[in-house]
Amino acid sequence: MKLYEHPFSSAAFKCRAVVHELGLPVTLVTVDMMKGEHKSPEFLAKNPNGKVPTLVDDDGFCVWESNAILCYLAARKPESGLLPSDARGMAQVQQWLQWQATTFSLSTGEVMSETVYAKFFNRAKDEAKYAAGLEKVRRDLALLEKTLTGREFLCGKLTLADFSIVSGLFLRTPMGVDLEAFPNVKAWVNRMESRESVRKSLPPL
Ligand SMILES: N[C@@H](CCC(=O)N[C@@H](CS)C(=O)NCC(=O)O)C(=O)O
Questions:
Q1: What pLDDT sits at residue 205?
Q2: Residue nearest atom 13 of ligand 1, based on CA coordinates
Q3: Is 58 helix (H, G, I), strand (E, B) or coil?
């Protein structure tokens, strides 16, 4: 399998972490986004959205959207328990994957846009947009804080939900996101970032 990705993409980061966690034979292929490789006809044939990450299996089967890629990877090793097969366990993981895609990726994306991306693209930070984004991130962190009361992981034990959601926080320092007011979240992020699979997936910052 090949994972087309970029070191600074949070969506790619979670896929790399699950690849390492499961020890799957996946070759990482960096897509040169500055050169627009992700919009080339060759890449669009794999993912018509022109985005990373994109996974291509050995027989040419393609899957895109990072949370779908996580499910495809976890299905290779069901014994890992990262994607439970019982109805309730699976629904709980899906609940968090969908919350990540529809809610947390948007709030963290707004903050990232006014910090990391603004700096990268040499554009001025819009303070009002930044403040509004940060408020939404804090709203989401409060939900995670409550969920993590008395639990080590979001669904009780380690699942795809943890990898998917923690990916929104790996750039928290340049994003100006402070976890001091969220001790359960802080402990959980530290727990996740102490895993070798996650550490190996962090980009050189
Ligand atoms: N919802 C997608 C988001 C993927 C995404 O937005 N990737 C960014 C990099 S983090 C990208 O490829 N952007 C290029 C573009 O939108 O043109 C996922 O989870 O895979």
A1: 66
A2: 51
A3: coil
